Amino acid sequence: MNPESAQGEEPLLLERARRGDEAAFAALIRMHQASVFSIGFRMLNRRDAAEDLAQDVFLQLYRKLDSIESLEHAGFWLRRVAANLAIDWLRRAAYTRAAPLEDGVEIPAPPTCEDPLMDRELVRLLGELAPAARAVMVLRYQEDRDVAEIAAALDMPVNTVKSHIKRSLTAMRGKMIGAQLLTAEELS
Amino acid sequence: MNDFENRLRRALRPVEPADGFAERVMRALPAQHAPANVVPLVIVRQAAPVSAWRRFSAPAALAASLLVAVFAGQHVATLQAAREEQAGLAASRELMQALRVTSQKLDLAYEAVQRPAPAPAVEEENRS
Predict the structure, then answer these.
(1) ipTM of the complex in this document
(2) Among A51, A67, A108, whose Cβ lies nearest the Cβ of B17?
(3) Domain spanning A1-97: CATH 1.10.1740.10
(4) Which residues of chain B lie closer than 8 angstroms to A55, CB-CB?
(5) Domain boundaries A112-188, corresponding CATH code
(6) Which of A42, A47, A51, B47 is the most exposed place for a label (fewest CB within 10 A)?
């Protein structure tokens, strides 16, 4: 089953997965795998660790299927578990050092003509943020979530989320300007 | 939204995992279907039981070290006391020997003093 057809059968997909339909659960995985894997990848900066994390997250989803109310809820639940698990792994010091992006990681070409070097630098700067701030930025700019949902996912007050975003943007902007990759005017 | 945020959003585009990810997850699923209400993996990891050996090994090692230190200290102290006692006895024996020798020499000297001297008249007769 491909994700497109799964989207059309959304109301049934979750129910089928709950009843043990492996094809339905595989379709659920395919629907959300990019999101979950990317959260792990941006947080941990390692593809192997990101895949381990994503696998853990989907195994947890499988065990909790009965408590998932809808596909939208599944998406929220997956983002929440992935982000918190990544923070947990980072705090366990297994991946504390912000490793450079692995060789061979291909960043897909953007639709507009952009500088891949700058993208890489932005991702590197993201990796220098503290785990909680990094999770906030990933959910905000990768997953395009609003501050209320980020606050709910990470169990932190909305004002803390806003503060993380503001301070992280300021720090990243400052480092980009300091490295002369951008001018202050470009970033205004 | 400003330009920097747009750039950041573009830089953080979602990335797909390696091919076959869903199949790998499906292979990792437990054999029985839908075991709902199981404790989440995070908590399971945190609550992983610590073996009795790991829990008590450090205190046991500490206690054993203390016992060894106490017994070794006692043994060293006993050896030291025995050595001092032996040295004291040897010194006492040497002193007694010295006293005996001195006493014998004094006896000889006393006997020599008490012995009568030879008569001088006999000597003069012989000379004449």
Answers:
(1) 0.74
(2) A51
(3) yes
(4) 21, 24-25, 28
(5) 1.10.10.10
(6) B47
List per-residue pLDDT tens for chain A, 188 residues long.
Answer: 444 444 555 668 888 998 888 999 999 999 999 999 999 999 998 999 999 999 999 999 999 998 998 889 999 999 999 999 999 999 886 554 544 444 444 444 444 456 778 888 899 999 999 999 999 999 999 999 999 999 999 999 999 999 999 999 999 988 887 766 665 555 54
**Rounded Cα–Cα distance for residues B34 and A67 (Å):** 11
CA–CA dist B79, B84 (Å, integer): 9
**What one-letter code names the amino acid at A150?**
I
Contact, A148 vs A158, CB < 8 A?
yes
Burial class (CB in 10 A: 0-12, 13-18, 19+), A164: buried
Question: Is residue B84 predicted with pLDDT exceeding 90?
Answer: yes
Contacts of B38 in chain A (CB under 8 A): 63-64
Q: What residue ranges of chain A are covered by domains with CATH 1.10.1740.10?
A: 1-97
For residue B34, give the nearest of A42, A65, A123 by CB distance.
Answer: A65
Tokens describing residue B34: 């839908």
Q: How many CB atoms lie within 10 A of CB A113?
A: 6
Q: Which two tokens stand for residue B57?
A: 């090994």
CB contact under 8 A, B28 and A59: yes
CB-based contact B41 A59, cutoff 8 Å: yes
Residue (of A123, A132, A170, A177) closest to A153 by Cα position: A132
* pTM (two decimals): 0.60
Q: Where in chain A is the domain with CATH 1.10.10.10?
A: 112-188
Q: Could you tell me if B125 lies within 8 Å of chain A, comparing CB atoms?
A: no
Q: Which residue of A has its CA nearest to B40?
A: A60
- A19 interaction partners in chain B (CB closer than 8 Å): 34
The reply to whether B47 touches chain A by the CB within 8 Å rule is no
Cα separation, A100 vs A15, in Å, equals 42
